[in-house]
Automatic annotation (TrEMBL):
An example molecular function term from Gene Ontology annotations: tRNA-specific adenosine-34 deaminase activity
Cleavable signal peptide: none
Keyword Hydrolase: yes
EC number: 3.5.4.3
Protein name as it appears in the record: Guanine deaminase
Record bears the keyword Hydrolase: yes
Annotated GO biological process: tRNA wobble adenosine to inosine editing
Residue stretches making up the CMP/dCMP-type deaminase domain: 15-126
Amino acid sequence: MIRDHTLHLNAVDTQQLTRWMKSALAAGVQAGENPFGAAIFAVDGTQVVAANNTVNSTNNPAAHAEVNAIADASRSLGRSDLGGYWLLATAEPCPMCLSAAVIAGIRNIAFGANQVVVNEAGYGGLGICSRELANQFNCEIVLRGSILGNDCVRFLLNNRKPN
Ligand SMILES: Nc1nc2[nH]cnc2c(=O)[nH]1
């Protein structure tokens, strides 16, 4: 029997995404780090990983929370194809993170704070919002914004680096 996994995958509701976002927030922020968290979930609610941004502690400008979560999940699952999983991010993924997720096979992404707030907090990216970029890809991406939005905005603004 052929099952339509896509339908099931997209049927995850806001309540479920809100629960999952709590795990991305719970990844927290390490001392001296940038306040971004991410988590990866199987559609049955199993958490694969939660990770945070480690750019400063590793001197790796690519060590965004989402990229770390994708790398950790691939390692943990023992495969590089993360198709069928949801990526949760406390902030709207930047072009690098969105591309990494899509290259990893992820097609379902939820985020909390949007790009305007990320810019406001001093973490300006490349000036292209995730939906704009996703529309350029040759595959369908489900992007759900403002999940636990207020909490994610607070997390970002309360922990941002001082000017
Ligand atoms: N979404 C996201 N945006 C960022 N901007 C700077 N670092 C990050 C990060 O880890 N995640």
